[in-house]
Amino acid sequence: MINMTMQPSKEMPIIRKIAFYLSFIFFGLGNIAFGQIIKGLIFFALQIAIVIFFVFWGGQHLANFATIGTQNQEFIEIGGSVVTIPGDNSVQLFLLGVFTILLFPAVALLAFVSIKSGLVAKQNYLKEKCSLDFKTDCKKLIDKDLHKTLLTVPFLGLLFFTIVPLVFMILIAFTNFDRFHQHPELFDWVGFSNFRAFFNMSADGAQIGRTFVRVLGWTLIWAVLATVTCYFGGIFLAMLINQKGIRGKTFFRTVFVITIAIPAFITLSAVSGMMARNGIVNILLMRWGFISSPLPFFSDSMWARVSVIVINMWIGIPFTMLFATGVLQNIPSELHESAKIDGANAWVRFRKIVMPYVLFITAPVLITQFIGNINNFNVIFFLTGGAPAVSGAFGGAGSTDLLITWLFRLTAEHNDFSFASVIGLSVFLINILISLALFKTKSFKDDTAFRV
Amino acid sequence: MKKRISIIVVAICLFFVATITVACSSSDDRYRLLVWAPAEEQEMLLSMSESFLYENPEFAELVRFEFVTMDFPNVPDEVIRDAMSAANIFKFPSGAIPAMGGNLLPMIYQPILTNAESRHVEAALDALWSDVTIGGQNRRALVALPASPNNFVLHYNSDLLTEEDVRSIESIMAADIDAEFNLAMPLANAWYNKVFFLGAGATVTVNLETDTLQTTFAGEYGMKAAEYMSGLARHPLFLNDDGGQGGQEFRSGNLGAFFGPPISRNDVINIPGNITEGSVINAANYASAPLPTIRINSEDRQLIDFSEHRVYGINALTGASRDHLEAAQITRIAQLFVDYITNDINQLRRFELTSAAPTARTLVNHNQTNIPHPAIAGNPSAGNPGRPEIVSSIIQAQINSAMPMPATRALSNFWSPQAVFGQQIVNNADSGTPPAVADFQRWLDDLYNGITINLTA
């Protein structure tokens, strides 16, 4: 639909030129100058709203963000009763500050969109000597610009539910928002002191550092062992079931898939009870005379660590078995036949054909599993809950606690949010580094590059 | 036409939504006093609130009560995490008072203070006084009112063990009874195993300068406690009760005695239709006793617990959303309600329902709730020691000899290392490794470092 009220003219009037350049300051003026009145007014109204927000609230939010609260809670007496005058709420002020800071890129985005829109209106005016009316613009949103319409809600969701909490979490790492600074106490900026505490290994006050190094070490050991055992166990199982001459292949595959069908937390909770000190496993072993006292499956450090790795195989191997079965069935039979003719035995064929092929195809899955195991909350939480506890460990980090379960413990049980935030950042950093390193493998660069 | 119909339909829908919203929101503008309490007290508290408002009809125009179930040990964390969403009145362990700090409303209303001082035994109020700044002046105020002690006792089967047997752990273990185990206790649970250290003579106190804990647990007395616990863990007739197995074995007649809170009595006595149905324990053979003695260095030493109480407190933000005069009225009603539910009559009701020992002087000294146990008063004619009033008297006797719980927020550093130490003793016993003083000392040093850690800076 073309707005025919605007008369075509060869030269652009000076007033429109000025209006266009002023749209860099007053959003929407460019659109208004070239006939898109409603659109221009919307941009301008948004700008006015933002200015009003910053003048009346935003400035205060930013000032409060700098201090995170100065007014402490007070009590006053009225008629023999105590009444509380609430002080500042550091968390609230912090959140409002983060929100206000994130408005700056939003304002920049609005400026960019409004200027670009004015430019398009100007170009359209020079080309067509007329302007698109608001209705036509709106119609474009369900036609040519449908992607913008569809992406608006996910983008806003991403902004409010991912970016705001992420920025909040990162910034919390630079405060002392811990168990001793919960409301009504105020918390404050502490710079990098939380990070220093995590790397402080000196004799004095090294509990946080020592605990961090221990938990980080175990997290990496766990991630490697859990990934390797499940990966090779799954491939081995898939090969075993895939062997010629094995009957009831579908039955065996189904049996193992049942472990996936049952929610992991049910299996893990049941196993946890069975292997407890007074659980059925120990009772039966003692009754049958194999042992004289209970085995400390989850109460001794080393036992507990071995136990969780072994039990995790029960949950993890069937996953690998499933995709390995598909990969094995796709290995060209000619490769095996030629190798046989050349005199290669089963071990050589496995080493030279099967493993390179499976590794090449499943490298992305392997990386996903490794990163997944670094953050494998369920297995540890439902099996041991991080136990056995370690004396003097910061935040109650137990022997089998991973960084992710320790983070949960620090927030849910100890209210040490600032330290938890540092751990969250560490996990994020580790995952990024591992991903970047592994994404350089051939599997990601060229998926047709496999050569035996 | 279609457009008009659509508009009318949308308008009608909006009208209904608006009507329902307004109807729901404007039904009651009285201030809601939300109360968090354990499940077993819900009905009783509802009834108490009705009586309270009946006796004070003017309060009914200003406030209404709502009750939500919340286990009392979880309350401090919930309040600290989000005081604005927390209840106005809640039950919690008094040991958490230092950690809860400014979240508790100070009570300075004179009738409440007068009542509290005259009503409750001194030991119950000791930890509840706090120095607070009110209107710029330092004042001494109560931050909670006590409902009952928070301690555990020895439950035993009087068909298997005698009153003489339960006086000491040695005599319990030496008794020749027709059961698989003589005694059960969760040795890796800090709430229980601390009694060996305190009983042996070790102490935990507060370093006021640093607001941290200081302890002698790693010293000579700690070593004695460690050796005693190790010996107990290795005894074939001792059951480490780490999964509630003790109660189960006790119900089946397979265990002579176990440690537990007074309410455990209700979990073991055969009650038709309850999970305890089929239990061999009944009102006739159930019995309870105070914490026994242990023999250390040829000397009988009494096991000692911390003195802690289950108390009711008020959220400091109660009424804060209203103007000051109205807020003062609301906090006064809240204080009077807490005073009401902890008064003599209501403590007696709570005692009858849950066996929770009272703190009110009249009840502590009253025959109905406090018939001295033979083991305490040396009076063998006191009757069946399994009756709840006996449990109450036992608790009171223990409170009198208990060690004050350290009043510091650093107390949170105590529980985990203490539990770890117990677990190390249990693992060591299970592994069959001979007890070694060097191992004990290493674990005690870890325990010391864990307890005295300074994280408050």
Brief summary:
Chain A has helices spanning 14-22, 29-33, 37-67, 90-128, 134-140, 146-172, 193-198, 207-242, 249-261, 264-274, 280-287, 301-329, 333-341, 346-374, 377-383, 403-412, 417-438, 442-445; strands at residues 2-3, 74-78, 81-85, 131-132. By secondary structure, chain A is mostly helical.
Written description of the protein model:
- The complex is a heterodimer of chains A (452) and B (457).
- With 452 residues, chain A is mostly helical.
- Chain A has helices spanning 14-22, 29-33, 37-67, 90-128, 134-140, 146-172, 193-198, 207-242, 249-261, 264-274, 280-287, 301-329, 333-341, 346-374, 377-383, 403-412, 417-438, 442-445; strands at 2-3, 74-78, 81-85, 131-132.
- Chain A is built from 18 helices and 4 strands.
- A two-stranded antiparallel ribbon of chain A has the order 1-4. Chain A has a two-stranded antiparallel sheet with strand order 2-3.
- In chain A, strand 2 (74-78) and strand 3 (81-85) form a beta hairpin.
- The relative contact order of chain A is 0.08.
- Chain B is an alpha/beta fold and 457 residues long.
- Chain B contains 19 helices and 18 strands.
- A 5-stranded mixed β-sheet of chain B has the order 2-1-3-17-6. In chain B, strands 11-8-12-7-13 form a 5-stranded mixed β-sheet. A two-stranded antiparallel sheet of chain B has the order 4-5.
- Chain B starts with a helix and ends in a 5-residue tail after the last helix.
- Chain B folds into 2 domains: 4-104 and 106-142 and 310-342, Periplasmic binding protein-like II (D-Maltodextrin-Binding Protein, domain 2, 3-Layer(aba) Sandwich), CATH 3.40.190; 153-307 and 390-452, 3-Layer(aba) Sandwich (D-Maltodextrin-Binding Protein, domain 2).
- At the A-B interface, strand 2 and strand 3 of A face helix 4, strand 4, helix 13, helix 18 and helix 19 of B.
